[in-house]
Amino acid sequence: MKIFRFEENETNPRTEILAGITTFLATMYIIVVNPSILSAAGLNFSGVLTATVLVSAFSSIAMGLYANNPIVLAPGMGINAFFTYSVVLGLGVRWETALGAVFWSGVIFILLSVFNVRTYIVKAIPGPIRYAVAAGIGLFISLIGFKNGGFITANPATMIGIGAWTPGTIIFISGLLITALLVAKRMKGALILGIALTTVMAVPVGRWLAADSAKLIAWQGFFSAPDFSLIFKLDFTGSLRLAFWPVVFAFLFTDMFDSLSTFIGVAEAGNIKDADGEPRNIKESLIVDGFSTMISGLFGTSSGTSYIESATGIEEGGRSGLTAVVAGLLFLPFMFFSPLLVVIPAIATAPALVLVGVFMMKPVIQIPWQKMDDAIPAFLAMILIPLTFSITQGIIWGFLSWTFIKLLLGKRQEVPLVLLLIDAGAIVSMLI
To answer: d(Cα 396, Cα 49) in Å, to the nearest integer?
Structure first.
């Protein structure tokens, strides 16, 4: 399989397959979570589930074969909530028109990538911000892991706090300690083994813990027929009306910075970079990302994007596109067997997500903390990603604070024109 360049990437098929399985296990939640969010906008649950599987599979396989990167794509969390609660329910836009806006944002996305505009954007991002985004994404992933494990919950007095001591939480903590030990021993396949062991621990109690906030195993059978009812249901022409272009721009901007942040974060953490220190095959990867968004509108779901959970497979040694291809292929059977996903509860993958945060903190040592005009924007980018539950917000405020501080200190040479244009776009997107 010369296309994956195993020797050049210092990997092998066995490692890549294990990495692909690990990444799939960390991202498969989207198959049922995405339909539950979009169904609130009036889309058919089973139709969105089928669309989610198709987008995740085709996009991830395309990433592996075309860009040779171990990054999985699927309909993005956050942007699906924006689709439902801001665009459809908030602005009163028909979901067919919103799907059209997703499609056209994908078309623009591809054009920006083909003409290297987005590559220039990547190069305009200051080094300290890049390192901070990688670490911030790590904190974000860990927060998601702790939340999925029921260890951290909402608290009206302190915003967040430690959760109740339930059987689910105890299983999560046990799984975290076991997986941490396997990782510390540098055992090959530690994350996937930890997921398997935590799942086994959850089996005996899953049946009679329906009230547990961790949502353990609730068996629903084997088979569920695919539903293709949402394919090509988008409104092509209606979404092109001038009144909807702010919506198209909002989808484009959010998707663009989610994917850019993910590429930069996993590239820094996993050292998947080219000779110039840029994320490897960035142009090809961004084209695939745009393709994912475009087919999302066609198939009936919100924008597809690169997933930060790809870091789980990268930490398992995934370095080539075979990791993404394996993960993509694993999505396809669940178009028919989606109920099987509940066999692996959220608390089983939660320990792996927490530990990925550890792996992704490595770049933080490269931030010049003694240089305050670099350190402050980097810190804001890093800390706001988990605090706002948004990668996009973190990187936006990192950019804006960098530009503000550098310009007022008379360091105009450290603020390229492209960054100024990004800042303008960020401000416009927040005002929409």
So the answer is: 31
In this predicted structure, the answer to whether residue 223 has a pLDDT above a threshold of 50 is: yes
* Pairwise CA distance, residues 202 & 197, whole Å: 9
| HSE-CB for 320 with a 13 A CA cutoff | 21
Alpha-carbon torsion angle 190, 195, 199, 200, nearest 10: -10
Q: Are 284 and 108 within 8 A, CB to CB? A: no
Q: Alpha-carbon distance 311 to 296, whole Å?
A: 23
- pLDDT at position 221 is 63
pTM above the 0.70 mark?
yes
The torsion defined by the Cα of 167, 170, 171 and 174, in degrees rounded to 10, comes to: -160
Q: Take residue 257 and report the two structure tokens written for it.
A: 């910075």
pLDDT for the residue numbered 211 = 40
pLDDT tens digits, 39-87:
889 999 889 999 999 999 999 999 999 999 999 999 987 688 778 877 8
Integer CA distances (angstroms), 430 to 136, 137, 246, 253, 424, in order:
21, 21, 11, 10, 10
